[in-house]
Structure formats: structure tokens, C-alpha cells
Amino acid sequence: MEAILKEYSQGDSHDDTFAHYLENAVNRKGYEHVRNNNLEMALKIFEWNTIYFPDSFNTWDSLAETYLRSGKKEMAARYYERSLELNPENNNAKEQLKKLQSPR
Q1: How far apart are CA 84 and CA 97, in angstroms?
Q2: For a surface tag, which of 12, 70, 79, 91 has the fewest beta carbons within 10 Å of its beta carbon?
Q3: Cβ(30)–Cβ(42) under 8 Å?
């Protein structure tokens, strides 16, 4: 997969359909690890996805969610904020940030 992404990132034109498919495929793989409670591997996959798709609010949202599940609230808040910068309409990020910022 690494070679495919390298080739993709060096191309003159980007096929948005392929990019969208690849981003979603990687995200699905990350969530497989979340479901299996392998959060360390899920974080690596989601971090990788943000490197290759830094303008996708969804990649940052998934990374934030997994940090939150890992108990790393500061990291989760940072990445929910990034997701919200990219998509101000991301209601999930808004809700999670509100929960993270409210005193309990």
C-alpha cells in the first residue's frame, strides 16, 4: 500500500475517486482494530491516514475518536479541533469537544 500511495502522491493529476476509496479503505481497517480493542494499531493506521489525506476532516475525526477511547483526552481534543477546522459542520467534533471542555 505504501508504494501505491507514493506513486499516487507523486502523480501529476490525482484521481479523486481513487483517493476517496483509499482513504475510506484505510479508515475501515483502522476501525477493525478499534473493534478488536487493538487501539495502538488503530492509532498508527489513523495517523498514517492523516499524513496521506491531511485535508480530510474524517481522517482527523477518526484519529481523535481513537485517542479519546485510549483515554488521551488532550490529543483527542487537538484532533477534533483540526477536524472542525477542515469541516465546520462536523457535528461529531463539535459534540465531542463540548464534552471534553465541560467540567465534570
Answers
A1: 10
A2: 12
A3: yes
> Reduced to 3 states, what is the DSSP secondary structure of residue 13?
coil
Q: Are 76 and 67 in contact, with CB atoms under 8 Å apart?
A: yes
**DSSP code of residue 1:** -
Q: Quick count: other Cβ atoms within 10 Å of Cβ 88?
A: 10
| Phi, psi (rounded to 5 degrees) for 88 | -60, -15
Condensed to tens digits (0 to 9), the pLDDT of residues 48-87 reads: 999 999 999 999 999 999 999 999 999 999 999 999 999 9
CA–CA distance, 3 with 9 (Å, rounded to integer): 10
- Alpha-carbon gap, residue 81 to 75, rounded angstroms: 10
* H runs (alpha helix) in the chain: 2-10, 16-35, 39-52, 57-69, 73-86, 91-101
**14 contacts: CB under 8 Å, gap ≥ 6:** 8
The dihedral built from the CA positions of residue 55, 56, 59 and 65, taken in this order, carries a sign that is: positive
